[in-house]
Amino acid sequence: MLIDKEQVKAFLPHREPFLFIDSVESISGSIGPVKDVKTLEGTEVKTKYFIGKDHPVFEGHFPGNPILPGVIQVEMMAQTAGFTIARLYPWPFKNINLKMALLKVENAKFRKPITPEMELEIVSICRRFKKQMSTYDCQIYHKGTLMSEASLLASFEQ
Fold first, then answer.
1. How many whole angstroms separate alpha carbon 149 and alpha carbon 106?
2. Distance between CA 107 and CA 120 in Å, rounded?
3. pTM above 0.90?
4. Is position 61 annotated as part of the catalytic site?
5. What is the tens place of the pLDDT at every residue in 3-40?
6. What is the rounded CA–CA span in Å between residue 10 and residue 149?
7. Looking at 40-117, which runs of residues are DSSP E strands?
């Protein structure tokens, strides 16, 4: 593990029940601060999340047949992609006021249902970073099986 839950919370503004990263396992390249956003292209981030059976989303989606909604899977991908920008900040993180917005989702595919008690690995690769806009290819895996994937466009303010 590279970044634990405490440092995840120091970096991302999200909180439970809408925080979908337990730990950051790896970020390719060095953790900050790098100066040029172009160096972020090609950065791969891997995170982990355990989706417990008591997560509130399963109360309504669906009682008796709980399945993690696709929109939550996309949010997991976006939160993981956000850690690409971690390379711009000094470590350890303190008072990061990250402002990142998901602008577009393309080619989303939900290949297998994600159900309670699954340990998920979320992978994001930054394909392009220009000024304050970035694109990512993201996937979610469970025990090496591809569960879902999407391409994301995001913006951020530093």
1. 10
2. 20
3. yes
4. yes
5. 999 999 999 999 999 999 999 999 998 666 888 888 89
6. 27
7. 44-51, 99-110
88: confidence class by pLDDT, cuts 50, 70, 90 = confident
> CB–CB of 126/42 below 8 Å?
yes
The token pair at 118 is: 């699954």
Q: Which of 70, 75, 11, 23 is nearest to 48 (CA)?
A: 23
Asked if residue 146 lies in contact with residue 139, where contact means CB atoms within 8 angstroms, the answer is: yes
Torsion of CA 123, 43, 17, 94, to 10 degrees: 150
Domain assignments of the chain as residue spans, ordered by start: 5-157
Q: Which residue has the tokens 């340990």?
A: 119
CATH T-level topology, domain 5-157: Thiol Ester Dehydrase; Chain A (3.10.129)
Q: Can you tell me the distance from the alpha carbon of 151 to that of 45, in angstroms, rounded to the nearest whole number?
A: 14
Using omega within 30 degrees of 0 as the cis cutoff, is the peptide bond preceding 62 cis?
A: yes
Cα separations in angstroms, 23 against 62, 66, 119, 127: 27, 24, 12, 22
Catalytic residue selected from 14, 55, 61, 142: 61
End-to-end CA distance of the chain: 26
